Amino acid sequence: MSDFHIDVYPVRDVCIVKGQGAYVRDDQGNKYLDCVSGHGVACLGHCHPEFTRVLKDQAEKLTVCPNIFKNDVRERALKSLADITKCQQLFLCNSGAEAVEGAIKFARFLTGKAGIISMVSGFHGRTAGALSVTWNPKYRETFEPLLPQINRIPFNDIDAFKQAVNADTAAVIVEIIQGEGGVIPASPAYLKALRLFCDEKNILLILDEVQTGFGRTGAMFAHQHFNIKPDIMTLAKGMANGLPMGAIAFYMDTTGKIKKGYHGSTFGGNPLVCAAAECVIDILKKDRLPERAEALGKKAIEKLNLELRSVDLVREVRGRGLMIGIELRQRVVSILKKLMEERILALPAGPNVIRLLPPLIIDETDFMNAIDIIIQILKDANREFIA
Ligand SMILES: *Cc1c(COP(=O)(O)O)cnc(C)c1O
After folding, report:
1. Which of 226, 238, 321, 362 supports an S-S bond with 22, CB 3.0-4.6 Å?
2. 249: which residues sit within 8 A by CB, 6+ positions away?
3. Burial 324-339 (b: 16+ CB within 10 A, else e)
């Protein structure tokens, strides 16, 4: 850790100073294939030329414009966002946790109820409200009491949901593929049943697409694979290719209900991040990056499944698009370290899952080579594991 930062992160002993495309370089001149991309943030990769030019141009024009004034770039970004999310209204903020905070606040206000149901293994951020609906007791318990009337139920279990609902249930918050919790996909049948039961009981369905949004899973938003719509969706990570930006998307007209002063953000929707988001959306569409993620992810997951099927160390390969998890029967720290020695950066998701979130622009040959190296490292580690 740095002497001047509080000790909250498991910091790796490498100092990253530069990035280009799907590669980053450290201060020793070593080059790494980046399958972390800032926790799935840099969907266009590092220093994408068009993105960089848009940022430079906007930096020379206007970077500060609070929401008490109109702004041309913000209007364009909102229109692009409404277009790809197919939502009715938006609120712009600065992070995933902040989007979740707002979603909880408005779900409670709009329904007049206080109860929120969330999922075992769900992750929604570390501010007080977002932490309340996050599952991992390790993150949460030290800081209790948090929000009241939160019910965390088993994921992919519709009966558990039906039993948990009561007269005070405002909303349920769920990820389409749980990210931090271990790359665990919601089943299509579960999502459909969840949507139906929420409609029946007037419960708001909050989809947290902070990690799965903006093409990551092979659709612009992961719920679009399943022909369902949320009532509220939270967004951040890939949204501005690494600039701090989040959003709450409302699939309803809140006019006359949500009033002036009910919410706000100093930095939210500033012209620089709005220019970034507009550019991200343009490039995702123009270069068909969600489709690319779907095809490349399919190829990688098929290869991993084929090669690792008889490797005892590996419990399961999961995911969709370029959100891939490899669950092991042991902790992944030593494997991540070996990958770093091979100049590949990857993430954990919980103690036992290797998570790959490369930029959506990653070169196919580079990525498939990395998949081969991962397979080889797991096969080598397996010899020790079964010994
Ligand atoms: C990362 C993440 C968050 C929190 O986002 P921050 O920007 O780190 O606050 C919330 N929800 C999900 C699903 C995430 O993956």
Report:
1. 362
2. 81, 85, 87, 89, 90, 230, 232, 233, 234, 235
3. bbbbbeeebeebbebb
Nearest atom (ligand 1) to Cα of 127: 9
Q: Which residues of the chain have pLDDT under 70?
A: 1
Residues forming beta bridges with residue 241, ordered by sequence position: 243
* Secondary structure class of 227 (helix, strand, coil): coil
Strand partners, 318: 325
Say what the pTM is.
Answer: 0.98
Whole-number Å distance, alpha carbon 368 to ligand 1 midpoint, is 28
Cis omega before residue 145 (within 30°)? yes
Distance 209 CA to ligand 1 centre (A): 9
Tokens of 348: 């954990």
What is the reported pLDDT for 19? 98
Q: In the prediction, which pLDDT does 3 show?
A: 85
CA of 211 to the centre of ligand 1 (A): 7
What is the token pair recorded at 353? 């899952």
Which residue type sits at 145? P
Strand pairing partners for 185? 177
| 8-state DSSP, 30 | -
Quick check: CB of 97 below 6 Å from ligand 1?
Answer: yes
Cβ count within 10 A of residue 369: 13
Residue whose CB lies within 8 A of the most ligand 1 atoms, among 124, 131, 267, for a mutation test? 124
pLDDT score, position 1: 61
Residue length, the chain? 387
Determine the Cα–Cα distance for residues 357 and 324; give it in Å rounded to an integer: 7
DSSP state of 46: B
Determine if ligand 1 sits within 6 Å of the CB of residue 175. yes
Q: What is residue 265's DSSP assignment?
A: -
Q: What is the pLDDT of residue 76?
A: 98
Phi/psi at 301 (nearest 5 deg)?
A: -65, -40
DSSP code of residue 186 = P
Name the residue of 98, 123, 132, 184 to mutate for ligand 1: max ligand atoms within 8 A of Cβ: 123
- Give the type of residue at 339: L
Quick one: pLDDT at residue 2? Answer: 79
* DSSP-based three-state secondary structure for 38: helix
Question: Tokens 């409200």 identify what position?
Answer: 129
